[in-house]
Amino acid sequence: MRDAEGFEGNGQTLRLLARLENFSAAAGANLSRRSMLGVLKYPVALSVLRNSELRPQLQGGPSVLRTIDLKASTPPKGYLDSETDVVDWILEPLCDADRDAFTSIEKREGKHARTLHKSLDCSIMDVADDIAYGVHDLEDAIALRLVTERQFRDLVPEESCKSFVEERRLKGPTESNAPYEAMVDGLFGDSNTRKRWISRWVNHLITPVRFIERPEFQEPLLRWRVEIPEGHARFLKALKELVMQVVIRSPGVQHLEFKGQSMVVSVFEAMQSDPERLLPRDAHAKFEAAGGDLRHISDFVAGMTDTYLLKTYERLFEPRMGSVFDKL
């Protein structure tokens, strides 16, 4: 998609709700402006944010494998240019000053530009997402023994947990004289004890969430946002970094991610090479009605579940897989 406006996950979510859902004839899920504003996490088009020096490409050097250059191929975070009219509609009630400020960007040397603002509803969603990612992904990783006690102590030392440790200390000696040690022992003990400590983490992170005012905006949904206080945010950042380093970047996970990327690219390129033959009839009809716009092939592939992607890949590329009786 590098020559057809690109692809970005948050932008595809907006497109899905605005156009692709079948709830209405031509307005997708037919949501209100406020709902769509809450989904608009990055309110600037990809074409505005893109650094022309960073062009999606394959890894260089001799190789029989066609490997994606992840650094060059990671897109900016914004909405797809195909949804410019949708974003114009979402932002239509704003005054010119609010709209200009809301869509302002920060340019960065050697990187794509980034947006600076989001709505109140979107900031609430962000905080909830960060807590879910940092806390519950780590809970699952510990339960599955993907994270050891030694790794936890190394990457989430007591200093990183200062806000939580101090809170437990204020509970008094009935809690523990060494709250960090009690926490670690509980996390790597039995499942019931682990769940109690996880519940305490969630309460610790949610309770102090506060409203922050942005006086440059007139519209209340832009003027106000929520955030986690600095000390609590430092604790959450340490939890997220542990998940990233030990779980997400582990070879076991990266092998699956590499395979998934290869499958997505291969299926998309196959569909693009001969849409009439390879696209299901309803998807091909939409593709033809749009004048051969590759965005519609992208929509089809992006809408696949993992299971359906695997099944499609095997039908196209595995000699012994697939049947004329398979339902596409």
Automatic annotation (TrEMBL):
Pfam families: HD_assoc (PF13286). One of its GO terms (molecular function) is triphosphoric monoester hydrolase activity. Keywords: Hydrolase. Residues 227-315 form the Phosphohydrolase-associated domain. The keyword Secreted does not apply. SUPFAM superfamilies: HD-domain/PDEase-like. This is Putative dNTP triphosphohydrolase, associated with nucleotidase YfbR. It comes from Salipiger mucosus DSM 16094.
